[in-house]
């Protein structure tokens, strides 16, 4: 049995039977109870990110990074590719001792752009045009420009191998120092990059400990010097962050070797001098993957061990924060020997449980390895969360695994800048892995629930009362399971008991989005236009007035390829007042000749509203490519404008029985530039060999039903309270009736110009319709305006 919906509101999983529902809202019997609390445990991680895969110009990669919601990216930039030693300026021959090293260092820092010391023409050209080879095809400038626009923090791993920097004499040390200085200066100047790693997994056959330490000391000094010079020259306030030792394997063993080497020498520079003001690194970094079978709780146990060791070694100084720049259920080599993937229930639920274990134990930065399934050591990296074209430029991403959708939900709920809150499960619900947070900017609470077992958790009551959510506020529950790929499972109000009771299925992940601000009742906006378009021989045919819109693909005949367009006219609103916007569709799988239990389609928000349902065809539709042949490879995909005029919003996954489905489109509506908004639904090739013949999603159109056709459900903040016309009494005070929200306080303000407001007093509204007495009004009430402003929770 899968997750169930208590309010006959939109569900993602469609294959439920009413007789099997085990749902009660605000049940008097609370056998399994999860209770949220308000005590703050720690901040959320400062970065939640991905290791990069391909990032090539003109690709759709940037839009998938945006869709994931991550705030961090780790990119491998090999020194031998960006500036091989043959391109180093010949000044290294002048460095023969410590004095000449320091003299040249001072000259470089006095004028970093001097081409006598640094080969700028070569290096800047490589950043702009060179394609990194090997595992990931990346043009660094292009990737960093896209990530910077998304607000993603970048960590650069530039491994200082003994083959690239073989010499440890003064001339060789200068080569290493100038390389890292130049890279950090350019990346800080152009892209505000602060995070760096000098060597990836030195415990896997790298340099000796002594040689590694010297290289780290040189690189750290160079990078910190470069960022300081960027700050001085360009008025920036970047903070250099060196992450080391970047070890792999068992953190309990690597700390005693590589880790302790770094930590105990944290104040020793490359000259061998001890300086309390010099920090070799700023964060302690490591990598960890699961075993066979994976044990999610071991990740948290090992992290606690590391944190204890750092505290003991560094006392009385504040210990380094711990970061993990690679984690997953399995590493690529182990995954390669398995038939399962990150679309396998036991793997994706374990992935969610691992992330919970690390975040629960205060990991400071966390990066999933990796965003796409590239080919490295001769095999496909199945620990990548996205399917990707490894053959054809621009190396587009085709689709996302369920593990990737879980990572997106984790990023949605536990982005930086929030407070992680306590939550507890009673004994019968103790198998659930839980995380909770509060976002003070959006005024939202989040609750992540992972069931990493093969047993459904029946009738779990999620008690939200301690969060003091206004009565009957609506909450959204999104999930990942075998019939839902990150979309809405429930959209329901919490009632007077401030709780939701539901059954969570096996190996599944839920994310509750709980607005804390009072809400207006949901507004339902029906589609103002909708249309189906067909490709191939039907590309010039208009399919107006269809009662069902078919979204389908075919590997042998483009004429069976179809997509759907939806348009809505929404009221003008202030984006800050919109709490939730849900695209709600009634749909079912039209057929499944491949035997699929569910059929999937992507939902895009598009910028173009210049189309009419009575004239729309494939040939004139926005964001659809023309003349694309049918097939099962990524080059057969046809949606255009990824990240510029079309934006992936979610996945519609329909079963054989008609049901309602929701996709969270809040961000798209908040950023809309028109009161008309449009959506495109398409079924494209998700992975290499994805044959979809005979599989399609059938969506009820506005012509098919006025009640279950396409609609937007919008939830806004409560409007400003209405103030009745003030009445003056004999004492000179006056009163008005405040029609507000019971249980909240309001600041009563006045103004003579509607711009500058003065606080008169603060009143509590206990009934929802309180008579307010203003005892100390301004000297003159004539020409004054009054308002009541809700105090935030």
Written overview of the protein:
With 793 residues, the chain is α+β, with helices and mostly antiparallel strands. It has 13 helices and 39 strands. The strands form 8 sheets. It has a 9-stranded mixed β-sheet with strand order 19-18-21-16-15-14-1-17-20. An 8-stranded parallel beta barrel has the order 2-3-6-7-8-9-10-11, surrounded by 5 helices. Strands 22, 24, 26, 29, 31 and 32 form a 6-stranded antiparallel β-sheet that branches. The longest helix is centred in the first third of the chain and has 26 residues, at 209-234. The two termini are 38 Å apart.
Summary of the model, kept short:
The chain is α+β, with helices and mostly antiparallel strands and 793 residues long.
């Amino acid at each position: 049995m899968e997750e169930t919906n208590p309010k006959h509101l939109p569900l993602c999983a469609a294959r439920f039977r009413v007789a099997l529902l085990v749902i009660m809202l605000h049940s008097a019997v609370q056998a399994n109870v999860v209770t949220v609390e308000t005590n703050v445990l720690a901040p959320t991680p400062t970065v939640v990110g991905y290791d990069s895969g391909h990032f090539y110009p003109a690709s759709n990669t940037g839009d998938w990074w945006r869709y994931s919601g991550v705030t961090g990216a780790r990119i491998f930039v090999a020194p031998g590719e960006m500036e091989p030693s043959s391109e180093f300026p010949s000044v290294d021959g002048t460095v023969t001792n410590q004095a000449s090293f320091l003299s040249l260092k001072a000259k470089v820092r006095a004028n970093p752009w001097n081409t006598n010391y640094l080969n700028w023409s070569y290096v800047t050209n490589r950043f702009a045009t060179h394609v990194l080879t090997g595992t990931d095809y990346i043009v660094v400038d292009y990737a960093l420009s896209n990530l910077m626009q998304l607000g993603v923090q970048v960590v650069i791993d530039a491994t200082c191998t003994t083959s690239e920097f073989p010499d440890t004499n003064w001339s060789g040390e200068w080569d290493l120092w100038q390389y890292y200085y130049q890279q950090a200066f350019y990346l800080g100047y152009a892209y505000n990059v602060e995070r760096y790693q000098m060597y990836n997994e030195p415990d896997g056959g790298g340099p000796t400990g002594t040689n590694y330490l010297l290289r780290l000391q040189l690189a750290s000094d160079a990078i910190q010097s470069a960022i300081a010079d960027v700050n001085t020259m360009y008025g920036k306030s970047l903070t250099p962050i060196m992450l080391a030792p970047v070890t792999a394997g068992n953190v309990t063993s690597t700390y005693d070797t590589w880790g302790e080497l770094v930590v105990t020498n944290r104040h020793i520079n490359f000259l061998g001098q001890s300086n309390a003001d010099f920090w070799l690194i700023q964060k302690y970094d490591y990598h960890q993957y699961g075993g066979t079978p994976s044990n999610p709780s071991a990740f948290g146990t090992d992290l606690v061990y590391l944190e204890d060791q750092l505290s003991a070694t560094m006392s009385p100084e504040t210990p380094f924060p711990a970061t993990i720049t690679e984690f997953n259920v399995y590493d690529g080599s182990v995954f390669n020997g398995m038939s399962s993937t990150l679309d396998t229930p036991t793997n994706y639920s374990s992935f969610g449980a691992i992330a919970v274990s690390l975040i629960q134990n205060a990991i400071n930065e966390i990066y999933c390895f990796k965003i796409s399934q590239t080919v490295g050591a001769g095999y496909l990296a199945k620990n990548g969360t996205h399917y990707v074209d490894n053959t054809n430029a621009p190396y587009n991403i085709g689709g996302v695994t369920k593990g990737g959708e879980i990572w997106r939900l984790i990023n949605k709920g536990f982005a930086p800048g929030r407070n992680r809150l306590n939550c507890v499960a009673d004994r019968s619900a103790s198998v659930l892995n839980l995380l909770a947070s509060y976002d003070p900017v959006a005024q939202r609470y989040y609750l992540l629930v992972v069931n990493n077992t093969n047993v459904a958790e029946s009738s779990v009551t999620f008690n939200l009362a301690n969060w003091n959510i206004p009565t009957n506020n609506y909450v959204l529950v999104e999930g990942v399971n075998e019939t839902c790929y990150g979309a809405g499972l429930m959209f329901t109000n919490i009632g007077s008991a401030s709780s939701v009771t539901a059954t969570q299925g096996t190996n599944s992940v839920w994310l509750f989005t709980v607005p804390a601000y009072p809400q207006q009742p949901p507004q339902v906006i029906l589609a103002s236009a909708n249309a189906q378009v067909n490709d191939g021989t039907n590309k010039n045919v208009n399919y107006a007035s269809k009662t069902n819109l078919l979204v389908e693909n075919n590997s042998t005949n483009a004429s069976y390829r179809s997509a759907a367009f939806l348009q809505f006219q929404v009221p003008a609103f202030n984006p800050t007042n919109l709490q939730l916007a849900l695209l709600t569709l009634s749909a079912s799988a039209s057929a499944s000749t491949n035997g699929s239990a569910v059929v999937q389609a992507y939902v895009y928000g598009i910028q173009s509203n210049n189309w009419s349902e009575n004239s729309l065809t494939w040939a004139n539709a926005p964001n659809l490519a023309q003349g694309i042949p049918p097939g099962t490879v990524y080059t057969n995909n046809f949606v255009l404008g990824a990240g510029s005029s079309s934006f992936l919003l979610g996945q519609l996954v329909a079963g054989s029985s008609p049901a309602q489905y929701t996709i969270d489109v809040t961000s798209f509506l908040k950023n809309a530039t028109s009161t008309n908004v449009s959506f495109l639904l398409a079924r494209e090739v998700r992975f290499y060999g994805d044959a979809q013949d005979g599989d399609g999603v059938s969506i009820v159109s506005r012509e098919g039903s006025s009640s279950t056709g396409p609609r937007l459900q919008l939830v806004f903040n409560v409007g400003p309270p209405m103030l009745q016309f003030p009445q003056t009494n004999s004492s000179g005070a006056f009163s008005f009736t405040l029609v507000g929200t019971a249980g909240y306080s309001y600041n009563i303000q006045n103004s003579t110009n509607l711009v500058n407001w003065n606080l008169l007093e603060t009143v509590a509204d206990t009934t929802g319709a309180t008579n307010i007495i203003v005892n100390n009004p301004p000297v003159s009430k004539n020409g004054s305006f009054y308002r009541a402003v809700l105090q935030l929770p």
